């Protein structure tokens, strides 16, 4: 194994938000007593006038963010993805998405990454829940650099955005020169035998699966679909037109996440095949993070196997 | 902009009665809406919009304006009537309430000039008002934020989350009014879920509290004067107005059933007649002075 650098994507958020705060006094961070976990403590010390801590009271954090946004601020609400997507849901809906206010939700501990914390803290449905709300943009960066770049892109975008980060350290797969655009996937491997569309912490796994397939002579096109809404529909259509077979991979409930979004496009095209890999509509549990991924089939082996089956 | 001359108590009474007539008319014409709470909040909203609030109807997004958050969003007819009367939009548009294509949505939407935040689902407005008040203080602006809450919606937990934040950040630019009409959809607040003394509760949350008769214009005006003078007290303000749901239309008064239904034609005519007679009484009152 090569020595790949591993960094949690929440660190990418934490570092970029400081840069943004320095550049623009309207950038605010709202914590809900999880600053230490979301790594926003340094922001709060550096920019106390751009920081609010509402305590363990997430619902009003969303409302406060909405109020701030009507006064020209660009608030980033920082807490766990599960609290943002479910505890604050109706406030996000009525006060942020309905008026399309410029509020960002920075959700740490996405997917199965808060592994030992168990099901209460593992956000397996967050992206799906928020994808359904009109006007919301939903993003999960695949590594440290994409997290930094997409946090910046979210700050520059006018409208509600949910960004989902990992608690755990994951491989750094991009370098700092890589550019990112909301709603535009990144092609990490080229190929015309099968397409693999992954997002977030599963991209690093899909990357290894694509390389394993390459060793067998199967050329997989790998897309990092960091934005599931708006989805890069053109890239999905190209994958169907040019290849016709797609494996999707996500650290999320199989319902209403990346795989579903891809299937919506493919079903309406009326051609092509999709195999979804994700959490099969069940809660998580306390266990090591990589073990939880394995239990849900989010492994190099299973991605490669599902690709082979599509080709068979 | 503030109105050039402070409106008198007598003038405010006339305005409140005019708002009530418009509320009844709008809801009658729309064949749906919430008359009870609109009527109970009418006196306070008249006082705020025609004496207190600094807004510019020609420039509804003016950065330094006072903000207004109607947390009990279902009573928006009375707010729409006030906004129209202040010139935010053509007064004729009040007849489009709840109609397709109208910006006078069933519950407030930001597409309507003068609406600073959407509301409707209860319990959410105070947090938004807190966000606006924090922004004002951090930016060194002089604007204030007026939030109107229902007593029933104070059963929502988020209200108290926002109240504790208002205390933490010493939001002396925040003025909360609780329209304490003691009624909600399923019965009295005591039957459904006792709110206990809301003034005492807000006091416990660090607010300066003023308990008043929410229909006594003299008291409303004097309280708003006091609150304005205490602008720099480092504490948020809460005015608890004891009110009567349906106030001004006798057959609606204190009847929970008038929470969310429209009057029929004969009821509408009776209501307008009664409100017209209030105008006559107010005219006599003026003569005596």
Please describe what this structure looks like.
With 312 residues, chain A is α/β, with parallel strands linked by helices. Chain A is built from 13 helices and 14 strands. Chain A has helices at 9-23, 35-38, 41-46, 58-70, 81-87, 89-97, 126-131, 144-156, 203-215, 233-242, 258-269, 289-295, 300-311, and strands at 6-8, 27-31, 51-53, 74-80, 104-108, 137-139, 161-164, 169-171, 186-189, 194-198, 220-224, 227-229, 245-253, 273-279. In chain A, strands 3-2-4-5-7-6-12 form a 7-stranded mixed beta sheet, with helices on both faces. Chain A has a 5-stranded mixed beta sheet with strand order 9-11-10-13-14, with helices on both faces. In chain A, strand 6, helix 8 (144-156) and strand 7 (161-164) form a beta-alpha-beta unit. The longest helix of chain A is centred in the N-terminal third of the chain and has 15 residues, at 9-23. The radius of gyration of chain A is 19 Å and the shape is globular. In chain A, 58% of the residues are buried. The mean pLDDT of chain A is 97. By secondary structure, chain B is of the alpha/beta class. Chain B has one domain: Thiamin diphosphate (ThDP)-binding fold, Pyr/PP domains (Rossmann fold). In chain B, the strands form 2 sheets. Chain B has a 5-stranded parallel beta sheet, sandwiched between helices. In chain B, strands 4-5 form a two-stranded antiparallel sheet. In chain B, helix 8 (217-229) links the parallel strand 6 and strand 7 (237-242). The radius of gyration of chain B is 18 Å and the shape is globular. Chain A binds chain B through residues 49-50, 52, 54-55, 57, 59-73, 75, 90-91, 94-95, 98-99, and chain B through 63, 67, 109-110, 116-121, 124-136, 138-139, 157-158, 161-162, 164-165, 168-169.
């Amino acid at each position: 194994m090569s020595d790949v650098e591993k960094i949690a994507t929440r660190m990418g958020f934490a570092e970029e938000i400081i840069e943004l705060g320095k550049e623009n006094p309207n950038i605010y961070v709202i914590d809900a007593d999880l600053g230490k976990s979301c790594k926003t403590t340094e922001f709060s010390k550096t920019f106390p006038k751009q920081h609010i801590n509402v305590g363990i009271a997430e619902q009003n954090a969303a409302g406060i963010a909405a109020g701030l946004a009507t006064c020209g601020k660009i608030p980033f609400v920082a807490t766990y993805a599960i609290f943002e997507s479910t505890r604050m849901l109706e406030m996000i809906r009525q006060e942020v998405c309905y008026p399309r206010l410029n509020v960002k939700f920075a959700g740490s501990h996405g997917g199965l990454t808060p592994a030992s914390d168990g099901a209460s803290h593992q956000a397996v449905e967050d992206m799906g829940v928020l994808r359904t709300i009109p006007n919301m943009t939903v993003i999960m960066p695949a590594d440290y650099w994409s997290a930094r770049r997409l946090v910046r892109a979210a700050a520059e975008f006018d409208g509600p955005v949910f960004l989902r980060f990992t608690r755990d350290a994951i491989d750094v797969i991009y370098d700092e020169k890589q550019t990112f655009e909301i709603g535009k996937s990144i092609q990490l491997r080229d190929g015309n035998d099968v397409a693999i569309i992954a997002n977030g912490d599963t991209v690093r796994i899909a990357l290894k699966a694509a390389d394993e397939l390459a060793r067998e002579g199967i050329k997989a096109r790998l897309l990092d679909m960091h934005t599931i809404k708006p989805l890069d529909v053109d890239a999905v259509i190209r994958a169907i037109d040019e290849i016709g077979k797609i494996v999707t991979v996500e650290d999320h409930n199989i319902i209403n996440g990346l795989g579903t979004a891809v299937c919506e496009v493919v079903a309406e095209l009326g051609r092509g095949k999709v195999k979804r890999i994700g959490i099969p509509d069940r809660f998580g549990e306390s266990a090591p993070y990589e073990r939880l991924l394995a239990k849900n089939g989010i492994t190099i082996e299973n991605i490669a196997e599902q690709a082979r089956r599509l080709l068979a | 902009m503030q109105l050039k001359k402070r409106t008198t108590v007598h003038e405010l009474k006339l305005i409140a009665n005019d708002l009530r007539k418009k509320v009844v008319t709008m809801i009658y014409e729309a064949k749906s809406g919430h008359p009870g709470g609109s009527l109970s909040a009418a006196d306070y909203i008249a006082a705020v919009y025609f004496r207190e609030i600094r807004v510019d109807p020609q420039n509804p997004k003016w950065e330094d304006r006072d903000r207004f958050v109607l947390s009990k969003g279902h009573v928006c007819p009375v707010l729409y009537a006030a906004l129209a009367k202040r010139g935010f939009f053509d007064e004729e548009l009040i007849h489009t309430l709840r109609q397709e294509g109208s910006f006078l949505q069933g519950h407030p939407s930001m597409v309507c000039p003068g609406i600073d935040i959407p509301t409707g689902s209860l319990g959410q407005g105070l947090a938004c008002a807190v966000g606006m008040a924090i922004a004002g203080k951090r930016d060194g602006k002089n604007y204030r934020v007026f939030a109107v809450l229902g007593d029933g919606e104070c059963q929502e937990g988020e209200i108290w989350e926002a109240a504790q934040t208002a205390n933490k950040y010493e939001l002396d630019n925040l003025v909360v009014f609780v329209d304490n009409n003691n009624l909600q959809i399923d019965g009295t607040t005591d039957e459904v879920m006792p709110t206990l003394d809301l003034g005492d509760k807000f006091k416990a949350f660090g607010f300066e509290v003023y308990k008043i008769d929410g229909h006594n214009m003299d008291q409303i005006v004097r309280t708003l004067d006091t609150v304005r003078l205490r602008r720099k007290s480092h504490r948020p303000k809460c005015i608890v107005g004891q009110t009567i749901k349906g106030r001004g239309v006798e057959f609606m008064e204190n009847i929970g059933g008038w929470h969310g239904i429209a009057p029929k034609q004969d009821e509408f005519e009776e209501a307008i007649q009664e409100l017209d007679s209030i105008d006559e009484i107010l005219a006599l009152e003026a003569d005596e002075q």
